[in-house]
Amino acid sequence: MKIKQTTTSFVLYSITLNLLLNIVKVTGQRILTNPAINCEQYRDNRGQLEITGNDDSLYCLHEHLYKSALSSPPNNAPDVYVNELLQKALTRCSFKKTQSSELSKTEKKTCKSRKCKKLRYHGRRRKRFARKSKSNRGRRYKAEHNECNWERKEVRMLSRSEWNQFTKRINILKKPIALPGGGSFIPYDVISNVHRGRRSLEAAHRGSNFPSWHRIYLLVMEAAIGIPIPYWDHRMDYDMDEPIDSIVWTDEFFGPGIGEVKSGPFANWTTAHNEPLSRNIGLTGSLISECMVKGLLRYKSHDPIIYPTIKSYSLEDIHNGPHRWVAGQLSVLRKSPQDPIFFLHHSFVDYLWYLFRKSTRETGNIDPSTDYPDKGPASQGRYEYMIPFSKLRNIHGYSDFIEGLSSFKPPPKCPHCGGSDYLECDAQISRCKSKASKAVVPDIQFLRRQAMNIVIRGTKFVSPITDIRTSGVALSFLQLANNTLG
After folding, report:
1. φ, ψ for residue 276 (rounded to 5)?
2. Residue 115: what pLDDT?
3. What mean pLDDT, rounded, does the chain reach?
4. Dihedral pair phi/psi, residue 176, rounded to 5°
5. Could you count the other beta carbons within 10 Å of the beta carbon of residue 324?
6. Nearest residue to 266 via CA among 246, 281, 280, 251
7. Is the pLDDT confidence value at 295 over 70?
8. Is 120 within a domain?
9. Is residue 397 part of a domain?
10. Which of 278, 310, 305 is nearest to 293 (CA)?
11. What is the domain range of residue 194?
12. Does residue 46 belong to any structural domain of this protein?
């Protein structure tokens, strides 16, 4: 009898072990299964799981959301999972009520003072004209959006602990989580695949929905990691003599910029397309310069900066340059979020859009929340549902409420450059620029030849702007770059 029980146990153990090995073989990574974690401790006072300072809370949240998505109609778990993350993002901030709504019922009955009556009048007027555009947007906007502490900082202005926390949480998302009944899912890959489908790409590019769709996408990733996404201010690297020498292309920040990423915080990543994470910086395209930013901010409505444009480069055109400049997965439309740099790049693009909207408000003539140009594919129509973020319509992405879910700490200025160890003041242009890496770099031409053996196929971003310095870096590699990594 004991022999029979032992044999049965051994068989069950073997089956379970083989199943796990097969799953690991498919994903190429260790599966997170930790039944010892008490996920109930991460529920808030509403009974919902939340991300806390403990990294185990990330596992609990994503396991719960995806398992719930598997049983929810429609039978499209990834979309349901992503929209649940979006719901968390949309409810992450509390906003102060306007002064008029703070009056109690008793105060309203005994409202006799001039100030009190003025507040009541403006409260009624706001309700009456809520749907009409207002010329004085600035003061009203400030009054309603000051209770959200999701502040995004330039990546070189983060403390080491802040940067390490960000990269650690991104890496946690990259680990497979086991599902009941077998199989697993990788949260990061599910989120990156949002930018992969034809319908999503059509809804997100070459039209008015470009800045707002990617703003929502950033919110989804922030909900997934529980902290703000820092932004990478390209201007600080563009102003260098050799941008490819920037400190960001070291293991302290993004890891190597040429070839497979085998060191740094994202070392040895395998993407959702089962490819090694790769880059080939500085061959073509361009980082965003101060001149490009000033060119954007001189316009006072969205139409001149939304693709397609006639006399100017659109925000999307300018954004395409760094995608091509970094190359690798980042240069391919449906693979670009597979490199975490995607989210730091788009955090900066979102910052530029924030500056533009702020500028339009200050003129007093344009309400950026309703200034939605009729451009792009039919799926980008003003009142169409935002694909795949089914809780929103496209116009919602332009709202002050969505913008108010994040804030930005401005980049540092000369002469002290915020005291950052990674920045220095260039007195000739009176701007802070990135310090160069002190690491001894091997022969760059040799590294590029090795990088060219890595073929990353797919439709590339189109960059109408090329930094003249890139065309001279490795002229003999350009044609090959367009076929592979470019």
Report:
1. -70, 140
2. 57
3. 83
4. -65, 145
5. 24
6. 251
7. yes
8. no
9. yes
10. 305
11. 151-483
12. no
Give CA separation, 423 vs 155, 417, 418, 436, in Å: 11, 6, 8, 9
Q: Which residues contact 375 (CB under 8 A, 6 or more apart)?
A: 207, 208, 303, 306, 307, 308
Q: pLDDT tens across 119-143, in order?
A: 555 555 544 444 444 444 444 444 3
Domain of 181, CATH number, reads: 1.10.1280.10
% pLDDT > 70, the chain: 76
Number of domains in the chain: 1
Distance (Å) of CA 403 to CA 90, 97, 106, 141: 11, 17, 35, 10
Q: Exposed, middle or buried by CB within 10 Å (0-12, 13-18, 19+), for 131?
A: exposed
Which residue shows structure tokens 């930013």? 293
Instruction: Kindly report which listed range (295-309, 412-426, 467-481) carries the lowest average pLDDT score.
Output: 467-481
Contact 232, 155 (CB under 8 A): yes
Distances in whole angstroms, Cα of residue 450 to Cα of each of 259, 264, 316, 445 = 7, 19, 31, 9
Tokens of 66: 């995806």
8, part of any domain: no
Tell me the average pLDDT across 157-169: 97
List the single range of 123-127, 197-201, 395-399 with lowest mean pLDDT.
123-127
